[in-house]
Design brief:
- This protein is an alpha/beta fold.
- The chain has two domains: 2-153, no CATH class; 160-354, no CATH class.
- It contains 16 helices and five strands.
- It has helices at 10-18, 36-47, 75-84, 118-126, 139-151, 158-165, 169-180, 183-186, 192-196, 199-213, 220-229, 240-257, 269-286, 291-313, 321-328, 337-351; strands at 2-9, 22-23, 55-61, 67-73, 128-135.
- It has a five-stranded mixed sheet with strand order 1-5-3-4-2.
- A hairpin with a 5-residue loop joins strand 3 (55-61) and strand 4.
- Helix 7 (169-180) crosses helix 10, helix 12 packs across helix 13 and helix 13 (269-286) crosses helix 16.
- The radius of gyration is 26 Å and the shape is elongated.
């Protein structure tokens, strides 16, 4: 397979698409997933004349000498650019979208392509994208090429992809909390290796989701869905300040209730998640426990953890029902929603007596 590097102006992509010579979504491409905020950010980069990542284009020539192109990598970028200039993509409802997700101080805030100045439109048309042209008509060669490339590069982990994809207020909150807090690194709740790959940001995002909606599954897709759900809000998503305050208050309560957490069960990631979400639920619904009750809760958590350890060592050992339910969820798939939910119910039942009487509405 031959290949070369070149540059094509945006006018080239428009012209090739309109004459039917550019396929922006070949069969092996995934469905478009970009939110409006991501589309706005890409268009702003073009208007600012900033570089955007290289696009891979497969180029095929038939026996009549006609050349066709297919976007192998860069579908979202090309699709967004064509939408913004108003090209009819047939499967989209937001062609000629406006830049209403940019910061309000941006000179292009709220504008459509037709509302840009003449100079801005000319600069937009002339913007040149870096393109790697793959000269082959073999889909098998294309797939094999990327398989080989991936052998020599470290694939991005889900959170690294999220950080490259999402820029909304939920993404910003998870990142800022992870960056501002040394707690997870100091107590080895998230390992140094995982932190280097943004595992601390991912875990903070999971805890934020738990604060808002109770225990959820820990799969990459579930976390992705929450990032996407909050992506198009402007400065804040609904109840953001309350969520942040609840997060910090819960962490402060854990620091008081479980000092030296690194040395006990609650410093394990799965157990920490369950403890954190249970305490967030109890403080939100019942208020903060007294200093005396925090001391009592500290002893009860130590006792409960010891009982769980004993049950895991001997599954025939007779233990209280809450301990039995908690321990059995740790054997496999500990982070799926059902098992997290069962641990949540067990822990909230154990810890509820240390909180004020439930508030009436």
């Amino acid at each position: 397979m031959n290949f070369n590097s070149t540059e094509y102006a945006i006018t080239w992509f428009r012209n090739e698409f309109q004459k039917g010579a550019l396929d922006i979504r070949p069969p092996y491409q995934r469905a478009p997933v970009w939110a409006d905020r991501q589309k706005n950010a890409l268009v702003e980069s073009v208007l600012l004349k900033l570089p955007i990542p290289e696009v891979y284009i497969q180029e095929s020539v038939d026996d009549a000498g006609d050349t066709t192109h297919a976007v192998v990598d860069g579908q979202q970028r090309i699709r967004t650019i064509l939408q913004f200039i108003g090209v009819d993509l047939d499967d989209e409802a937001d062609n000629d979208f406006c830049l209403d997700k940019l910061p309000a101080q941006s000179p292009w805030f709220g504008l459509t392509f037709s509302e840009l100045s003449d100079d801005d439109r000319r600069r937009f048309w002339s913007y040149r994208l870096s393109v790697r042209v793959l000269e082959t008509d073999s889909e098998e060669e294309i797939r094999d090429m990327f398989k080989r490339l991936n052998k020599y590069t470290m694939p991005l982990r889900p959170q690294e992809l999220r950080n490259a994809t999402y820029i909304g207020p939920f993404a910003q909150l998870a990142t800022s909390l992870a960056d501002d807090l040394d707690y997870f690194a100091e107590n080895r709740i998230v390992s140094p290796g995982s932190i280097r790959r943004m595992g601390d940001i991912e875990f903070v995002a999971e805890l934020l989701i738990g604060v808002m909606h109770g225990p959820q599954g820990g799969s990459a897709k579930i976390i992705d869905d929450y990032y996407a759900q909050f992506e198009d809000y402007e400065d804040e998503f609904p109840h953001q300040r309350e969520t942040r305050d609840q997060f910090l208050a819960t962490l402060e309560l854990i620091e008081r209730a479980v000092p030296g957490i690194r040395r006990v069960r609650w410093g394990n990631k799965a157990d920490f998640y369950s403890l954190f979400v249970a305490l967030a639920h109890l403080t939100r619904s019942m208020g903060q426990p007294s200093a005396r009750n925090v001391r009592l809760m500290r002893d009860r958590l130590a006792q409960f953890a010891n009982e769980v350890d004993e049950r895991q060592a001997d599954d025939e050992l007779r233990v209280p029902p809450a301990v039995q339910k908690y321990a059995r969820t740790l054997a496999s798939r500990a982070n799926d929603k059902a098992r997290r939910g069962e641990r949540h119910r067990a822990l909230t039942a154990v810890l509820a007596p240390y909180f004020p009487a439930r508030r009436t509405s």
